[in-house]
Amino acid sequence: MKGNMEERARDLALYIIENRATVRGAARKFGISKSTVHKDLSERLPAINHSLYDQVKAILEENKAERHIRGGIATRKKYKGV
């Protein structure tokens, strides 16, 4: 089981780096919850591969900084009927 969690954390990190995906997008792709993605990336990944963790952390920080913009665009589309 532990090997599977480590492999999943590594696969999540690679997916997020390659696709510049959000936590929500990665959770949807892998069929797991957002909290599991967070736990894998914030707790398990640094112990497995710290350089990969640094790359993922940079992307997640960027996503966090931009989320209010994405939310505004989604709300605009919702009310414009697009």
Would you write up a description of this structure?
It contains 4 helices and no strands. It is mostly helical and 82 residues long. The protein has one domain. Helix 1 (2-19) crosses helix 3 (34-48), helix 1 (2-19) packs across helix 4 and helix 3 packs antiparallel against helix 4 (50-80). The longest helix has 31 residues, at 50-80. The radius of gyration is 14 Å and the shape is elongated. The mean pLDDT is 91.
What attributes characterize this protein structure?
mainly alpha, 4 helices, 88% helix
In a nutshell, what does this entry contain?
The chain is mainly alpha-helical and 82 residues long. 88% of the residues lie in helices and 0% in strands.
How would the blueprint of this fold be written?
Elements: H1 2-19, H2 23-30, H3 34-48, H4 50-80
Helix pairs in contact: 1-3, 1-4, 2-3, 3-4
Task: Give the overall average pLDDT.
Answer: 91
Major sheet: none
Structural class of the helix and strand makeup?
mainly alpha
Number of helices: 4
Low-confidence stretches: none
Percentage of β-strand residues = under 5%
Shape summary: elongated
